[in-house]
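Thread amino acids onto this structure.
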């Protein structure tokens, strides 16, 4: 079986603890209105790898990982290729290399997905929008799969960092964020809720790909406002 990778990021500022190698898998079932990587949406646009080929590439960086580092699978949506990623994870385990999953949760909780979640060093879970209506309006899919994944992560006690993108005019207020927090209060698996400010750095990709950019008239989030909202979220969750 082959998997499809959009791009790599070598030991740079990729998400997760420690020094990490970023693998961005191709393909995504969502169409987030604020996506800055629309070039990752199509699986077939990626470069194909056998699991063993990918692990060989990752293992070259092993000496940099230390105890807390490893590889971060992002995308696109890494769990869209869960069967293949299970093969990769098995080989990584044999090499003693850990992995973090950066996911939207927008996939069914198949056996392969559960196996990958359970075997990860930690999970970065994006909570795109707080309810069915807004989730559908701004991502094209419903919220139930993401909430089911959060419940599963809680049931297995897997450390999970939640990320929320804050977009001016959509969810840049305490009232708007409160609607996300109802899903997060009391969840012991949630170690942190991180707000990410909307930015416009991906706009040129929409033009290049000929895709409509629904936020073309929206400015980047003011960093000071993001900091104020982050303080609100932290206070609400006692983090
Ligand atoms: S889940 Fe990520 S890659 Fe997919 S559309 Fe949303 S922001 Fe883009």
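Threaded sequence (239 positions):
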């Amino acid at each position: 079986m082959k998997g499809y990778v959009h791009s790599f990021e070598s030991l740079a500022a990729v998400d997760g603890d420690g020094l990490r190698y970023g693998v961005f898998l191709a393909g995504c079932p969502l169409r987030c209105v604020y996506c800055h990587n629309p070039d990752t949406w199509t699986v077939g646009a990626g470069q194909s790898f056998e699991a063993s080929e990918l692990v060989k590439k990752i293992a070259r960086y092993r000496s940099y990982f230390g105890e807390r580092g490893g590889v971060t699978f992002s995308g696109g949506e890494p769990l869209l290729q869960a069967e293949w990623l299970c093969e990769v994870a098995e080989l990584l385990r044999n090499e003693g290399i850990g992995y973090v999953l950066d996911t939207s949760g927008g996939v069914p909780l198949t056996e392969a997905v559960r196996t990958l979640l359970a075997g990860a060093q930690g999970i970065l879970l994006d909570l795109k929008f707080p309810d069915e209506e807004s989730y559908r309006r701004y991502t094209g899919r419903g919220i139930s799969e993401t909430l089911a994944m959060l419940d599963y992560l809680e049931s297995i006690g897997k450390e999970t960092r939640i990320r929320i993108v804050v977009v001016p005019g959509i969810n840049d207020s305490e009232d708007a964020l409160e609607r996300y927090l109802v899903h997060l209060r009391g969840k012991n698996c949630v170690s942190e809720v991180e707000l990410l400010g909307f930015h416009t750095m991906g706009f040129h990709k929409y033009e290049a790909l000929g895709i409509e950019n629904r936020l073309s008239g929206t400015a980047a989030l003011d960093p000071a406002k993001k900091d104020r909202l982050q303080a609100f979220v932290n206070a609400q969750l006692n983090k």
